[in-house]
Amino acid sequence: MSQRYELNEKDIDKALNYLRIHHSDLATPENAVKVSQAMYVIAHEAAAHGKKIDLDEAIEQAIQQVRDLKG
User: Fold this and answer.
1) What are the residue boundaries of the structural domains of the chain, listed by start?
2) Which of 21, 27, 52, 67 is most exposed by smallest CB count within 10 Å?
3) pLDDT tens digits, one per residue of 26-60
4) What CA–CA distance (Å, rounded) separates 67 from 34?
């Protein structure tokens, strides 16, 4: 049985701090949650296809997804 990732305050805080430093226009708790969730999906998809991911690229991809959702 596989374990599902459960979002926690520590991960949200890390994402929020990253946003504050690198993307201050997106630095809200709600966006930190969205970025964390997008990162989970990106990592899960990469693992499912046996691909390695560059962490910096994955973070920026997750942030771009949040930007795209904002419209």
Assistant:
1) 9-70
2) 52
3) 999 999 999 999 999 998 898 889 999 888 899 99
4) 10
